[in-house]
Each structure stands twice: as structure tokens, then as C-alpha cells.
Specification:
Residues 218-489 form the Tail specific protease domain. This is Peptidase family S41. One of its GO terms (cellular component) is outer membrane-bounded periplasmic space. Strand 1 and strand 2 form a beta hairpin. Helix 6 (167-175) packs across helix 7 and helix 11 (317-325) packs parallel to helix 13 (417-427). The chain is of the alpha+beta class and 517 residues long. It has 15 helices and 19 strands. Helix content is 39%, strand content 19%. Among the domains are: 1-33; 125-226, PDZ domain (Pdz3 Domain, Roll); 261-333 and 395-440 and 485-516, 2-enoyl-CoA Hydratase, Chain A, domain 1, CATH 3.90.226.10; 345-387, no CATH class. Strands 1, 2, 3, 4, 5 and 6 form a six-stranded antiparallel β-sheet that branches. The chain has a six-stranded mixed β-sheet with strand order 9-10-11-15-16-19, with helices on both faces. Strands 12-14-13 form a three-stranded antiparallel β-sheet, with no helix packed on it. The longest helix has 32 residues, at 2-33.
Length: 517
């Protein structure tokens, strides 16, 4: 008993020390972020990053040969001839990482950290750029939705410059930081519209005003955007949105966007056609959602099902395996065995990462159990190391599995787990895919779980996916995304006019089939 009391006392001391050092840690991080690092140290960081990739990434040379990647890293080091800040170094190293063409593989941009007080202050203000929705076409950035009618800027307006810097310069610069899986051509524009201002604010900080020059219908205008303070009604509304009702839980409500990750409805009065929209395979309450949804579809006797995974960047393998069980006509295996570089790789996943002092203390107690479980989670076969996964075992169809015709809507924003399930559905001839080539590869990806490596001098984080996850199909080796059976594209004007040519095609096809019955 005395030993336990002493241990708890030690943990209390750790918690107190960690809390007291929090502000100091933030200050040191921001000082380090603004400090220039010498060329020799930066070159050591380049070598460190490449070494860790070679040690941990199970398919590093999938889309680029080793000699070519060696050359790129050597060439990069040749360009580092003066001191750079971590942010400047990031913009040099990340394009080389992007050339590996693994969509999950990217350095974390070195951002300024904020104290709790600063975060609270920002939470009491409205976003400046986040109150618009965007569309990227080539090197152009357009506003397609003005949520709060700011300055009465019309959808379809192009932003030409921000604080007199051409937006095309930013787009070109940021495009080099983003890679899809392989030689996919659709992913970048979808992803770039979502992360453009993440890059921009990392470079330029959170300002309270910004001047933008725009072009609409041939006329140029200059507007000054402001980071406005939220009213009491805004703050009360935020609190209300954050409340988790049973409906919000099952449909996985996201307060920041005031939307649901999962939606279900019937598209016609006789419930012939069911529609499921999944924005993210988050897993949260997903089992209950699919159980309730497919019970309703079965009870309604629906003959058609549309599953919409457009702009779904992926997520839980468990969720897509469960979803597939509601679509499969017979037992199936979703993925092939997932390969690792070594049996000790699962122990390199930064177990204590992002732990609060309280979590750190209790994780310490559980660490031996974690090590034991991970040690026995791998196996060796034919000279290769694999990780035990439920999704690579035979799974039976659910008792409420849908028996009718399935259509799946896809586009360049369908990535990772979205591509895994759509590749499997297409291979099994279980669905008709409609839309654009997916952003994720047809033949799988490297993700699963990550080892978060920190470059020794710049302190930039490099998350490295440790599992080669591939759908259980015969591979096409196209080095591209999942190709639709029916190619239907969506224009910017379609989005502005709230038209959906991809969904409309499916509805028309169903109407034709019903007319022949």
C-alpha cells in the first residue's frame, strides 16, 4: 500500500510540474519556430527524415524509384546553403516528401502555438477566411459560398490577390506541398481548397484584417475583411450546437461546420430509393447508424441504394468493413494482410503523444499491457511481416444486408478508406460507380497507424504511416485512383446553382429501370 501511495505522490508531482511548464513550453516552441537553423543542421534533418522513411515506410518506392528519390534528397541538400527558419525549411523539404506520391505522407507544417488565453480569445471571434467556401481551378481560387453575405461578395467571385500578393503565387506554391496516391489527377484541387488557408495562416499568422482584390463578371473590386467579435447570440448558439443529442451522436454531428458526417433518407415517396451520405468514416456511433439505417431500408423494401462518398477523405477501416457487411451477398474479405517493415514497428507509434499530464500518468501504468499486446499483434509469413487485422479475415454478410442495386458516388475528394471500399465494390461488381476518379489509389495505400518522428534540429513532425493497406482485389497497377464506371463531372457553376449532375444521372437511370419493370 505504501508503495502505491508513493507512486501516486510521484505522479502528482509530475502533473503539477507539467502544468507549470506548459506556458514555458509554448514560449520556447514559438521562439524556436522563429530562429534560423544552420545549413549543416538542416542537412542532418534531411538525412534523418529519409533514414526514418527507409526504416518504417513499407512501400516507399511504390511510385518513385530509389535512385530517383536518392537524387531528389541529395539535390535538396545542395540547395541549402544559408540558415533557414523551420517554416522556410518546411517549404523546401515538403515538396520532396510530396514527390514520393503517398497521399498520407506529409510533414506537419510548423505552426505558432497559442496559450489557453489566446485560444479563448480566438474562439470569441468569427473566422475571416473560413466564412467562405472555395473552389480551385488550375491556379485560380474562387468563392462559391458566402455564408454570412460578407460585403455582398457573390458566389463565383475569383480572389486575385490577398494583401497585394497574387493568389496564383500561393496556389502554385501550395500545390507542390500536396500529393495524392500515385499519379492521380483529381485529388489536389479538392484538398487544396480545404487546406489553402491553413498554409496561408501558417505563413502569415492570424491577422484581424486582410485586403482582397476580386474579379466578378469582368469587374475588379477590393474588399477589406475583418475578424469580427462574436455577439452574445453567436456564443450562445455555439454552446447549443456543441450539445450532443442522441441524433447528433448517431449521425456524427460536427459543430464546427454545423453538419452531420452521416445522413440517410429516401429519395422518393414509395421509398424505392435509399440514399446514404458519409462525409467521413469517423467510426463514432457508426455501428448503430448502419444497424438502424439498413433495418429501415429492409423494412421499406427499397430496390435501389445510393451511397455518396464524395469529398470523404477516409477514416476508420472498421467502419468500412462494417458497411460492406450490409452490401455483400456472401462472405467476403475486405483487405489483404497488412504489411509492416518489421515486428517492432508497432512499438514506434508514440504511445504517449499528445497526452495530458493526467493521461500520461495513467498511460504509464498501462504501458506494459500495451507493449505485450503490440508484440503479439504481428506475424511473419514468406519472409514478410504482417499486422493482425479484423478486416483481413472472412466476414459474413449482415442479416439486414441490402439485396438490391447499389450506386456509389465518387470524386477526387474520395480518399483513403473511401477508395478502399469503392475499389472492393467495383472489383466484386457489387456497385456502379458514378462520378470522377477517386483521390485515393485503386490498389491501396500506406496508413493504418503512424510513427510521429520529430526532425532533430528544425523540430518539424513527420508522421509516417506504418501499414500497407490494400483492398482484397486483383491489382490493376495503374498507379491511379478508382475509375468510375460512369464518368460525370461537376462544374463550379453546378455547385453554385446547387445542381448535382452525378446524383441526377443516377436518379434518371433508376427512373428508366423502373419504367421498364
Amino acid at each position: 500500500m505504501k508503495k502505491i501511495q508513493n507512486r501516486l505522490k510521484n505522479y502528482s508531482i509530475i502533473l503539477l510540474a507539467a502544468a507549470l511548464s506548459s506556458c514555458t513550453s509554448i514560449r520556447r516552441h514559438n521562439e524556436q519556430r522563429a530562429t534560423c537553423i544552420g545549413p549543416d543542421e538542416l542537412k542532418e534533418d534531411v538525412d534523418y527524415a529519409y533514414l526514418k522513411l527507409q526504416q518504417m515506410h513499407p512501400q516507399l518506392y511504390w511510385y518513385i524509384s530509389k535512385p530517383e528519390l536518392d537524387r531528389k534528397f541529395d539535390s535538396l541538400k545542395g540547395t541549402i546553403d544559408e540558415p533557414l527558419t523551420p517554416l522556410q525549411f518546411y517549404f523546401k523539404l515538403q515538396p520532396v516528401i510530396a514527390d514520393i506520391r503517398e497521399g498520407h505522407l506529409a510533414l506537419r507544417i510548423p505552426r505558432k502555438k497559442f496559450t489557453k488565453r489566446q485560444i479563448k480569445s480566438l474562439e470569441h471571434k468569427k473566422g475571416m477566411f473560413s466564412r467562405f467556401e472555395y473552389y480551385v481551378k488550375d491556379d485560380h481560387l474562387f468563392i462559391i459560398q458566402n455564408k454570412d453575405s460578407i460585403e455582398n461578395i457573390k458566389p463565383g467571385t475569383e480572389i486575385l490577390s490577398i494583401n497585394k500578393v497574387p493568389v496564383s503565387d500561393y496556389v502554385k506554391k501550395y500545390r507542390e506541398l500536396i500529393s495524392s496516391d500515385g499519379y492521380n489527377t483529381t485529388f489536389q484541387s479538392y484538398f487544396l481548397k480545404d487546406v489553402f488557408f491553413n498554409f496561408y495562416t501558417a505563413e502569415n499568422g492570424f491577422k484581424d484584417t486582410a485586403s482582397i482584390e476580386t474579379l466578378y463578371n469582368g469587374e475588379k473590386h477590393t474588399y477589406t475583411l475583418h475578424r469580427e467579435s462574436k455577439s452574445k447570440n453567436d456564443l450562445d448558439k455555439d454552446k447549443e450546437l456543441e450539445k450532443r443529442t442522441p441524433e447528433k451522436k448517431v449521425n456524427d454531428y460536427v459543430a464546427s461546420s454545423n453538419s452531420y458526417n452521416r445522413n440517410f433518407k429516401f429519395l422518393d415517396k414509395d421509398s424505392t430509393t435509399a440514399y446514404i451520405k458519409v462525409k467521413s468514416f469517423s467510426r463514432d456511433y457508426s455501428e448503430k447508424f448502419y444497424k438502424e439505417t439498413f433495418a429501415k431500408i429492409k423494412n421499406a423494401g427499397s430496390k435501389y441504394l445510393i451511397i455518396d462518398v464524395r469529398n470523404n477523405y477516409g477514416g476508420s477501416l472498421h467502419e468500412i468493413n462494417n458497411l460492406y457487411s450490409y452490401l455483400a451477398p456472401e462472405p467476403y474479405v475486405l483487405i489483404k494482410p497488412s504489411q509492416l517493415t518489421s515486428r517492432i514497428t508497432p512499438l514506434k507509434t508514440n504511445y504517449f503523444r499528445k497526452s495530458t499530464p493526467f493521461q500520461y500518468a495513467f498511460k504509464s501504468l498501462a504501458y506494459p499491457t500495451y507493449v505485450f499486446a503490440q508484440t503479439f499483434s504481428t506475424y511473419k509469413k514468406d519472409g514478410k511481416v504482417y499486422y493482425k487485422m479484423k478486416a483481413d479475415k472472412p466476414t459474413k454478410p449482415n442479416k439486414d444486408a441490402f439485396q438490391g442495386k447499389v450506386f456509389v458516388l465518387i470524386n477526387g475528394g474520395s480518399f483513403s478508406a473511401s477508395s478502399i471500399i469503392t475499389a472492393k465494390l467495383k472489383y466484386d461488381k457489387r456497385a456502379v460507380l458514378v462520378g470522377e476518379e477517386t483521390g485515393g489509389a485503386n490498389d491501396g495505400t500506406v496508413a493504418g497507424f503512424y510513427s510521429y518522428q520529430k526532425l532533430p534540429h528544425s523540430k518539424i513532425n513527420l508522421p509516417i504511416g506504418l501499414l500497407l493497406v490494400q483492398p482484397n482485389i486483383d491489382f490493376l497497377n495503374t498507379k491511379k485512383g478508382v475509375a468510375p464506371d460512369i464518368t460525370i463531372t461537376e462544374s463550379m457553376q453546378d455547385i453554385i446553382d446547387k445542381k448535382d449532375p452525378q446524383l441526377d444521372w443516377v436518379k434518371n437511370e433508376i427512373a428508366k429501370e423502373k419504367a421498364l419493370q
